Request: fold
Amino acid sequence: MLKDDVERELNVQIGEETASAWLYLSMAAWFESMNLPGFANWMFVQAQEELVHARMFYDFVHERRGRVILGAIAAPPTEWASPLEAFEAAFAHEVHITERIHFLTGLADRVADYPTRVFLHWFVTEQVEEEASADEIVQKLRMLGETGSGLFMLDRELGTRVFTPPAAPAT
Ligand code: OFO
Reply:
């Protein structure tokens, strides 16, 4: 059984992961409107991954015989000044999600909830990758510049990203 405060925070995290998907889908739509289909593809794949993350928390709460309670998801921003600003926002968002995962991990430790602690281990590792992949594109945008052939080449590269569902963590 889940303790009440752990259950509540896992429910908050379902909302956080869903909000991540909503944010990246909004960024995908903005990139489409900017005629950058490769960037839009990268964000769309990212949104799909976030929905899987939300589902993992959803399933875990049920496995532990908890109750999933969904809250409101705030509307995401819809405009960014440039591709660089959008990816800087994506990176900052991932830093926030990392902080949430670390907070949850600390909570599980404090209440000796070992199954939740083990479940969260996958997300601790995942967040290292999430931050690194957003930051890699920030660095490329800074290096290549945001106009002309650099942007076109990066758009082609980001267009090759495909969605592969993450393997479920052991519980
Ligand atoms: Fe779910 O990792 Fe990004 O937000």
